[in-house]
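Title: Prediction job returns without error message
Component: structure pipeline
Severity: low
Priority: P3
Assignee: unassigned

Description:
Job completed but the reporter wants confirmation the result is attached to the right record. Sequence as submitted:
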Amino acid sequence: MTKKVIIIYGPPGSGKGTQAELLVRKYGFFHFDTGRFIENVVHSPEAKKDPMVRKQQINFDTGKLCEPWWVLKIVKEKTTRLANSNWSLVFSGSPRTMFEVTGDKKQIGLIDHLSKLYGRKNIVVLWLKIRESTTMKRNSRRRLCKVCGLPILANAKTKHCAFCGGGMRKRTLDKPEVIKVRLNEYKNRTYPILSYMKKMGYKVQGINGEFLPYKVFEKVQKAIGLE
């Protein structure tokens, strides 16, 4: 299979991470979960020694976006290493800001960076569309496995991850007040990227994300030519 970069956009709870993980399991993609990557960086023991990383931690834990120039820098470094290791990549929700997409005079944007690594024609953009009420419902119920990090839709009977048996944890990002901040951040800073990508000639394909994950995945595979 030709090495590809799949970028999946959508509001919080639209299933970006789930679809990315399905691509990992069926086709061997590397899921570059920028949120998880940043979370690991800002909560690492080393972060206590770095004032800049501590500053980003405050933004992250309150639902605000970390400073784009910092995110762009660390993501480009990581993606270069992955490309050199011959991985196909799937991004779930990032790049999140126009700055991360386009960069500035000091550093090239992520899209041009990925185009150089993988080729422009091998970059596919998907947009999962769900209602705001669906966002609130899904995220308020979501937990993550403490061991493998996979998402779990929790209910009264759910105590362990179905994949590895690990316990659950609730992210600070999934508190109701933080979800509202994240929705506003998505509308104001991430959503405009879709129009920009279309303008630049990238094919942006909308997919209804309200259905069960396996149904959405059928449309995802078709959209990226892997069905």
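Comment from assignee: result matches the submitted record. The longest strand covers residues 123-129.
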